[in-house]
Amino acid sequence: MNSATSVSAGEAHATARPLQLQVSRSAEEALSRTGRTEDIRFSPDNRRLALAGFAADCCLVFDVSIDVSAALPVVRITDHIEIRSPQLREPHGFDFIGNDRLVVANRVGAIEIFQLPPGHCGGRTFDLQPVRSIRRANLLRRLRNPGSVCVAGNSDGRVELLACDNYKRRVTRHVLDLNNRLGRADNRILLRNRLDIPDGIALSDDRRWLAVSNHNTSSVLIFDRHGPLNPASAPAGELTGVMFPHGLRFSPDGRRLYVADAGAPRVCLFTSDDATWSGRRAAVRSVGVMDQETFLRGHCNRAEGGPKGLDIDASGSLLAVTCEHMPLAMFPVSGIFAA
């Protein structure tokens, strides 16, 4: 159990000041017309950033340059592409397979894998067909509402994906060979116990700890992948005090977990001194990431208005968040979550 003194997640500190991003005109225009967003994801090489156009049935993928050598990170968004497809239906969650394949979980569709065009495309729109689609939870059941997804393994074209099937209240596991387009994926229901609208999913870098944000219980459940998991498996840990947890991400060293609170204008920080996440713990800090006026514009009900998507860049230096009325904001981790 973490030894740090905990504070109430409702005790938000002053609103943090976002970085001034250097954004090309075409990318800025694309952001301004995005509308409702959901999740956000950096590519492994830190050179791309995917953002959901949930209501517009599209995805934006930005070319990003990040310089962390100065006191404050310098972020340049130099170009973007817009992806459209008949298979994009309320795109909600992302992850990357390598740097040029994008996995998209569609709330009213399936899990789709797209081969991305090369960067520096001058803000073009591409109509794409997925290279693979995943439509089943297991042999007998279909995926219904996949909302968030993460890559749990990627080796020699063999990929393992974990996905939140939101309103069916389960996490599914999918293993497929991308070198064999017609090969059937190995699909199964991985987790179900205590899940109540799982809304976000994240893996620690060592692939041991699986975090799932649980919308209806205002908690994040942590599962230990060192042992075999099945639908009856109980969580090893639980994080409490977030009103409506959504996007979440481990720090690269596995000692921190950042959680976006969709029901408040804040991000909550949980810590583990030894990078193990068993037991119950509260947030050690919460930081405002938007002003009250921006929050209230989206606060149409108690579960909306705050940040939805959240990601940490590969260096662990940069926190990115998104929501409908704040399409993209980035913060220096060391500046807003000082030790």
From TrEMBL:
SUPFAM superfamilies: 3-carboxy-cis,cis-mucoante lactonizing enzyme
Domain of life the protein comes from: Bacteria
InterPro entries hit by this protein: WD40/YVTN_repeat-like_dom_sf
Gene3D superfamilies associated with the record: YVTN repeat-like/Quinoprotein amine dehydrogenase
Name the record gives this protein: Uncharacterized protein
Lineage of the species this protein comes from: Bacteria, Pseudomonadati, Pseudomonadota, Alphaproteobacteria, Hyphomicrobiales
